Each structure stands twice: as structure tokens, then as C-alpha cells.
Amino acid sequence: MKHKIIILMAALAIFLSPMMNTGASAAYPDRPIVVVIPFGAGGSHDLHARGITSIMTDIIGQPMIVKLLPGGAGMKATSFVAKSKPDGYTVLFTHNGIDMIVPQTRKVPVNTQTAFKTIWKINHSDGMIAVNSKSPFKTFKQVVDYAKKNPGKLNWGHSGVWGSSYTSTVQILKAAGIKVNLIPHKGGGPLLRATLAGRLDIGSCQTTQCRPNFKGGKVRPLAVMGPDRYKNDPDFGHVPSWTELGYPNTGFRMDRIFMAPSGISAKRMKYLQDAFAKLMKNKSFKRFMRSIGMPTNYMTGVDYDKTRPTRYKEYTALIKAITGK
Amino acid sequence: MLDAFIEGFFLLFRIDTYFYICIGLALGMFVGAMPGLTTTLTMAILLPVSFKLEPMLGIPFLIGIYKGGIYGGSISAILVGIPGTGASIATTFDGPALTRKGQGRKALEMALYASVTGDTLSDIFTLAAIGPIALVILMVGPPEVFAIIIFSLVLIASVSSESGLKGAIAACIGLGLGLIGTDAATGATRLTFGLEILSAGIPIIPLVIGIFAVPEVLEAVQSRAPRFIDEHIDLSKAGERLRWPEFKRSIITILRSTAIGTGIGMVPGVGQVVAAFISYSAAKRASDDPDSYGKGNLDGIAAPEAANNAVNGPTLVPLLTLGIPGDNITAILLGAFVAHGMRPGPQIFEEQGPLMYALLLSIVFANILFLGLGYILLKPFAYAIQAKKAYLVPIILGLAFVGTLSTGVYTDVIIMIVVGVCSFILRKLKFDLAPLVIAFVLSEPIEYRLSQTMLYAKGDIFHYMFVQRPVSSIFLSAAIIWIGYLIISPRLNKRKQSQGAQAAQP
Amino acid sequence: MEEEEKSNIPNRSFVIMALVVGGLFTVGSLTLFVMMPSLIAQGGIPEAQTDFLRLSPVFFPRLAFAILSGLSLTYFISTARTLNQAEDGGIFEEQGTLPRILTLYSFAVVYPFLLPPLGYVISTIFLIGGMTLFLGTRIWWQVLSFSIFTPIMIRFVFERLLAISLPRSEFELIAVAEEGLMQILVSIFFGWKG
User: Fold this and answer.
1) Nearest CA to CA, how far is A26 from chain C (Å)?
2) What is the pLDDT of residue A85?
3) Quick one: average pLDDT of B455-469?
4) Contact of B76 with B83, CB cutoff 8 Å
5) CB contact under 8 A, C64 and B296
6) For A161, which of A67, B187, B314, C164 could close a Cys bridge (C-beta 3.0–4.6 Å)?
7) ipTM above 0.85, yes or no
8) Pairing verdict, β B189-190 and A64-68
9) Omega of the bond prior to C46 within 30 degrees of 0, cis?
10) Which of B427, B465, B378 shows the shortest CA–CA distance to B68?
11) Cα angle vertex B321, ends B315, B322, to 5°?
12) Taking the model in full, what pTM does it have?
């Protein structure tokens, strides 16, 4: 009996001894940071995240893990992060559509404008309208003309309701006054596949995944879904933008943003923002972004937060114009 | 092109690639065996590690994890009836029965050999026919997917042994559960009752753990036997290995299942879970002894295991040829490729030919390592199951919780517990829950593909299906005819029996 | 499986249980069928919907519930028919199984509620300790060491090696203790790496 008590004491002692270590609390971050992404596999966010997280690991000394939580129009991931402890170990990597448009189109459990503060904006990009290279359409104008003569006939795909291509598509349909057969897909990947297979007359894609297929001669981009061309892009510099083609104020500029729950401490937020600032200057990061063909037109979190209220109101007007409500 | 291939072949002569493949395989098997931990998560976590290694080390490493993971799931499926991954659900039909008979090790070995065979054959096929496969995959559109799913459902239903009524009820429940959440076609949210946690649907991991793990634990408690293995089985035989004649008997099943798995791999959005079920059902249909399935037939292990590994090969094709990943795992691989400056797509075999061929070949060779490593690693597992329940059950339950907690979403645990007790009750009532899982997994693609098909058809369904998409019409017509046959044939048999009985009377 | 089909004379408790379940399903699915339209929240915008999508979001759920209610009604009726022949008997063969199962289940139910305040390690100690004792092991220091060792090792493997985070306690003290323990183990296992 005696030695059993000794064993118990020893076990307790070992177990309790770490409490002696409670001195200065460990430096932040002392464990991995989880980056939650509201999209499924293979999208542009996923791709960005892989590169960003692996390089950030060197900068902050702790791994950054990607957690994909697609679904619910992005709300599943958004509310997950909003509800998590604001200790800086859970962040959201999303885009402005989820942040500002989706909450205005349906009942959502989170007020994204108050629940989140921006850490950093990585970049923004506009997508492109593209057709299969076997398609008879060589310019966007031809598409519009055809659609006007044959309403509802063109198979036009988008990557998900209120996703990035959906918003732009719906805008252009209204601006050009055409009706098409909209076919939903679950994300940019399947959308591009359907375009390549020829099932869709028109699809859209982001430059990253478009590039290898364009170089392989399989797709033909017709227009950039936004105000500007891709200047200085060796492959896509020739593609006109919607504004040039006569449809101003169309297109959805997707800002890729890292957000943290607003309860986060100012110190930790500053730490993260400084880490991202370092990331922007990091050589491997620049190389990675070049290899996926994405721009690095970043903005600091503080600056971005200043723009949010105005953009929110812009989107309110946009949604009203589209839905007529 | 041949030069690139030969050049690639020479890139394989380095020991460190194989070293990393082995580590990946071992990790994958471990993670796969834990219910609730997904291979996807592990690959995502280790992705940064693979970045720092060069492509010939980093990418085979990830692929090793992937392969190991599918097999790992069968370990827990066979030993305790809890599938470590969705793909091993079909393995839980015959696996635990074999373990209870003390043949756990045999079952594990059969699973290993079947997995390796299926994987190797499918990888070789992929390597050889990558161009045609890419074309086929591209051509498979929503109508084809829909038709194939319906056909598979009929096949699975046709071999379901328990009363058709209960199976159908389970399937409807699964269908209903699967419909909770957001409809992809219209963006409408259904059946969420205002709980936004359900707005993305019921997550599959807590569901599967609840359906399989919790009732197993409760049933283990129910019997007072101190161990999982039946008491009267001679324990010294429990370590018995698979003998060649036993394996030989299953070769046809394995080949058939590999073909099915490879075919399913070419259909986007269907996946390993369904492939395993389909080949199990097909094996049962083709067998001389269908009643022994579910009671411990080694074929019942060989079929799903060969199929779920065979799905791997073609799944990589869209990634490599188009640069478009088909699922989470290929997305992670895409990340790995891109980080190394490689851009998968139509050009990559021209730009980086030798490296790509080397990688593909390493995938094929990885299977050999898989065989060896798997064999070494399964021994401790097979012996571990002989420990007392008092230790095993808490560990299993603890790990089940860890798996659910790992997603970080707290309510998953509640889902697991609620589903668990309901499944336990249903099992007591002799409901077979496999149709529930299948229906749950397939409910979403069925509706989504049907919606897409209708949109493509622009209102004129018949013209579209039969004229423009003949392949899908073939599958659908076959399915409908089969359903008719299934409903009518019991009646025909009864009539024959009664006529025979009448004729036998003088 | 050696277990033969149970004798065809049904067990009364089974039948009652089956009736309850069947009844619940029938009523439940009928309710859902009827209520379906109100359980939907629209998404997307009407203009973007085209005329060709004849499949409204209510279709499949309603189909599923209609079939389910029909099937469960059939089940209910056919089970009710066997009620006359049912013999008395309990659901479980051995006496006292129901309390065992309920106890075990209550462990599982209480566990998630223990997690936030107590954190993973301590809650799991209770879970594993309780279950091991419950399942018959009586040698108390075996129970204790097993139940302390297991959660710590699990936490270590999953958190440090696989980077999967497990719940932390809300009480600073316990959380810090857990963290410290992890650090010790890390230094033991990885210390040699320098």
C-alpha cells in the first residue's frame, strides 16, 4: 500500500510541476494559427493560401494551417471564425463578396462589418469571361448580339450563387439587356472544366487556372470582368475590359482579405499586420505569386478597413439595382 | 516523348524519394486508422514541409500519405467496425465478423493485398492511357454522372440482404439528412430550422462516427465478454496469416473491383465511398455464396479495398492534364506543384516531361513500398485487438471524440452523440444503416446533377438525353429496367413456387 | 457470424420499440412534407433563375419525405400485425444491460460539457477512468495511470505532431498546466534535435 501512495504522489508531482512554470506567459504565437477558408478545394483562395501559409511559417515561427470550410455561401466559415476565441489563433481568409454582399442577400448570423477587422488585403483581381477555343465567338460583342437574337439559349456558367462570377455575370446581363441560360457550378474548378469540355458556351475563370489552358490553346478569353485590362500581363494583356467594351460599372473586383475577429487584442493584431508586411517583401512570396500568376497589389488592414463602410453602401445599391428590391 | 519517359525513369534512382514515400505511407496509415482524422487534413498540415523539399521528394511524400490513408481506414474498419475514412465503410460489413472469428490478421492482409493490387493496376493504367482518360473525364457531364449514380443505387439496392423495406427507409432518411443545407443550384437553404450551424449541411465526419463508432462502443459494453474476439476462439490462431489459396479465390473479385474503381475515378464527384459500395455489391451479385457476405467473407474485404484504392489513379488525371483539381486532395497536390514552380496543365508534359514521368512512375513504385510497409505495420494492430475491452473501448471512444473535435466545430460532437444513440436504436431494430450513409453521400450530387442536366436540356429533356447524350440514356434505361425486374421477380418466383407445389401434389 | 436468425416469434419489447420508431418516422416525415415550403429560405435572385429549372428546391425533400412516410407507415402496420404473437421479453438478453448502456452513454453525453471548463486532458481523464472502471478493471493504480497517461499522450501526438488543436480549458491555471506539460514532453522527445 505504501509504495502505491508514493507512485501516486510522484504522478501528481509530475503532473502539477508545469504549474511552476507559470511565469511570463508564452510569446504569441506559441501554437499554430488556423486560417479558415470559406471555399472548397482548388479555388484561387486555396492556391494563395498554400503559398502564403508555408512562407508565413518561417516568418512567425509557428505553422499556419489551412482549414477549408465551404458551404452556406461562405457563412459557415465566417460564423465559425466570428464565434471563435479572439485570441489571434483563428483567422479568416475570404473575399469582399462574402464579407459585404452575401450578408445583404440573406439572413446571416453574423454582422460581418462589426465582427471582423481586416488584417491585410493580399491582392485583388478580376476574373475573365472565356469560351472554349472551338467556339464561334471571337469577341464579346458577338456574344451579346447572339444572345439578343436568341434569348435564353446560351449556356452561361457561373461558379456559385453570389460567388464572384455570379455577381459580375448578373450585372452584365442587366447592363447588356440579354437573357441567357445560367448554369450553376460548384466553384471555379468545375466551371472551367465544363467550359473546356464544350458543354458551356461561356464560362469565366481566374487567370491562374486559365493560363495553362490558354497557353495550351484550349480556351479563349473574351473580356476582363472589370474596369481595367491586365496591363503588363504577357498572356492576357490583349483582353479588353468590360468598361472598354461599353459596360462601365460592371464586374466584381475580388479583394482577397485576411480578417480576424474584432475582439482580438491590439498587440496581436499589430503583430499579424507586421508579419504580413514582412511577407509582402519576402522573395519566396513574390516568386510564388509570380508562379501562380497573381498580382500583389496589397493594402494594409488599417487602410482597407477605412474603405469598407463606403463599399458596403455601394454594394447595397448594387444589390437593389439587380434584384429590384 | 519516349526520351522524356526514359529520362524520367532515371530520375528514380535515388533512395531519399523512397524514404519520404515510406514516411508518408506510415503517417497516412496512422491517420487513416483514426476515425475522424482525414488524410486531407494531414496533407494540408504537411504541405509546408513538402514545400521545403524538392519536387521529387515533396510530392511523392504527399502521395504516400494519401495512399496510406485509404488503407489505414480499413484497419479500424476491420478490427472494430469503425471506418477510419469514408472509403472503408463497405469494409465494415465483413471485417468485424472476421475479427470476431479470430481472423483479424487475415482480413487485414487481404485488405492490404487487395488495396495494393487495385492501386498498382490503376496507376499503371493511368500512366499508360493518360490522354484518353483525360478525354473521357472531360466528356463526362452532369447527365452521365446522374445516370451512373442512379444505376449504382439500383445495383446496391439489389443486393441488400435485409428486408427491402428497412433498407429503403434507411435510404430515405439518409436522403433527407443529405438535403439539409444549401441547395447548390438555387442557393436556397433548406431544413436548417434557423440553425446556421446546419446551413452547410450535416458534416459527414461526425455523422459517420456517430453511425459506426458509437453503436459499436455501446454494443461492446452490452456484452459482458471481456474481449472483442469471441471467447471460444483459439487465440493462438488469431495471428494466422492469409494463405495463397485464399487469396487466389479472390483474384477475380479484385480485378473486377479494380475496374469498377478505375471507372468511378473517372466520374467527377462520385468518389471512393461509392466505388467501394458498388464493387461490394457487384461482388456479392457475382458470388456463388451471396449469403456469406456480411458474415465474414474475405471477398467482402477484397472488393471494397481494391476499388477504393483504384480510384486514385484516374483522379489525378484532371489535375495533371488540365490543372484543375477534382477534390480536396488533388487541390493540395496542386498547391504542392505550384509552389515548386510547376504549372500542371496541357503544357506540363512538354515543359517538364522527365520530372512528370518520374513522379508518375514513383507513384507506381510507391505501391511496392506500400505492400512491404503495410505488412510490417499491420502485425501490431492485429495483436492489439486481443487486449481487454476495458482498455480498448475507452481508447476507441476517446479517439472518436478527438476525431470529431479535430474539426474545431463544437456542435459536431453533439451531432455525433445524437446520431450515435439513434443509430444504436435502429441497429437494435435490425436496420441496416449502410443505405443511409450511401443515400446521404449521394443525395447532394443526385439533385445537383439533375438540376444541371435540366438546365442544359433547356426544357426538352428527352431530346437532350437520348439524342445528345446517349451514354447516360443507356445507363438510365438499364437502371429503370432493372428496378422493374427487381420489383416483379419476387412475385414471379412466388408464383413459380406455388405452381411447383401444386404440381408436386398428386 | 454464428448468431442465427432470432426465433421468429417476436419479442414484445422489440415490437413496441419498432412501433414507436415507425410511428415517429411516419408522423415526422408527414409533418416535414407538409411544412416543406416554410422550411426554405430563398437565395439568389429571381432574374437569374431561368424558366428551365423546373426542379424547385422543394421537390427532392418532398419526394424523400413522401416516400419515407409511405414506407414507415407500411413498417408500422406490418409490425403492428405481429403484436398479437409477441412474447414477453426484454430488449436485451442479459439482465441489467440497459443500465450499463445508459451509464456508458451518459459518460459520452457529459463529456462535451466538461470540455470547455476543464480542458481536454482532465475531462478525458474522467472519461477514460470512468469507463475503464465501469468495464470491470479494479486495480486502481492501473486505472489511474492508464487514464492519466492516455489523454496526455493523445494530446501530445495530435497537437505537436499533427497540429490538431484540442479544446483548452477556460481556467487559466489548468490551461497553463496543460501547456507546460506539453512543453516538457516536447523537450523530452524533440530536445535532442537541438
Assistant:
1) 9
2) 79
3) 71
4) yes
5) no
6) B187
7) no
8) unpaired
9) no
10) B378
11) 95
12) 0.80
For the ranges B236-240, B305-309, C155-159, the one whose mean pLDDT is highest: B305-309
Q: How far apart are CA B260 and CA B282, in angstroms?
A: 9
If one compares B120 and C190, the residue with the highest pLDDT of the two is B120
Query: Are A241 and A229 a contacting pair, CB within 8 Å?
Result: yes
Q: Give the Cα separation of B264 and B475 in Å (integer).
A: 14
Q: How far apart are CA A143 and CA A146, in angstroms?
A: 5
Residue found by looking up cell 491585410 in the block: A120
User: Which phi and psi (to 5°) does residue A101 adopt?
Assistant: -95, -55
Whole-angstrom Cα distance, residue C25 to residue C68?
Answer: 8
C-alpha cell, B393 = 473501448
Q: Is the pLDDT confidence value at A208 over 80? A: no
Cell reading at A117: 477587422
Q: Flag whether pLDDT at B225 surpasses 80.
A: no
Q: Which residue of A has its CA nearest to C43?
A: A106
CA angle A124, A125, A126 (to 5 degrees): 140
> Neighbouring chains of C at 3+ CB pairs within 8 Å?
A, B
Chain B interface includes C138 (CB < 8 A): no
Q: What are B66-94's pLDDT values in tens digits? A: 888 888 888 888 887 888 787 888 888 88
Task: Please report the pLDDT score of residue B258 as a whole number.
Answer: 92
Which amino acid does the sequence have at A198? G
Q: For the residues of B80-127, what is the DSSP string, one character each? A: HS--SSGGGGGGGTTHHHHHHTT-HHHHHHHHHHHHHHHHHHHHHHHH
Q: Which residues pair with A125 in a beta bridge?
A: A254
Helix or strand holding residue B278 (H, E): helix B271-286
Q: Flag whether pLDDT at C41 surpasses 70.
A: no
Nearest C-alpha of chain B: how many angstroms from C114?
A: 12
Q: State which H helix or E strand residue C100 sits in.
A: helix C97-134
Three-state DSSP at A297 gives coil
Query: Which chain A residue has its CA at the smallest distance from C183's CA?
Result: A18
C184 and A18 within 8 Å at the Cβ level: the answer is yes
Identify the residue whose cell numbers are 494594409: A300
Amino acid B192 reads: T
CA distance linking residue B95 with residue B98, whole number of Å: 5
Strand C40-41 versus strand B189-190 pairing type: antiparallel
Which cell is B315 given? 483522379
Residue A180: its chain C contacts at CB < 8 A?
Answer: 50
Q: What order of strands is seen across the sheet that includes strand A128-132?
A: A203-205, A128-132, A219-224
Chain C nearest-CA residue for B93: C1
Whether C45 sits inside 8 A of A322 (CB atoms) is yes
Chain B: residue whose CA lies nearest to A70 = B200
Q: Which of residues 73-132 of C touch B (CB under 8 A)?
A: 74-75, 78, 91-92, 94, 97, 100-101, 104-105, 108-109, 111-112, 115, 120, 124, 127-128, 131-132
Checking if the pLDDT of A275 tops 80, the result is yes
Q: Which of A81, A316, A294, A314 is nearest to A208 (CA)?
A: A294
- pLDDT at residue A23 greater than cutoff 60: no
Closest Cα in chain C, distance from residue B407 (Å) = 8
| Cα(B368)–Cα(B67) distance, integer angstroms | 12
pLDDT tens for A98-133 read: 888 888 877 777 888 888 999 999 888 878 888 988
Q: Kind and range of the H or E element at A204?
A: strand A203-205
Q: Is the dihedral of CA A265, A267, A270, A274 positive or negative?
A: negative
Q: Which residues of B touch C72 (CB under 8 A)?
A: 169
Q: A161 and C43 in contact by Cβ < 8 A?
A: yes
* Alpha helix segments (H runs only) across A151-300: 164-176, 188-197, 207-215, 266-281, 283-291
Three-class secondary structure of residue C87 per DSSP: strand
Average pLDDT, chain C: 70
Q: Does B19 touch chain A (CB under 8 A)?
A: no
Pick from B97, B125, B83, B43: which is nearest to B305 by CA? B83
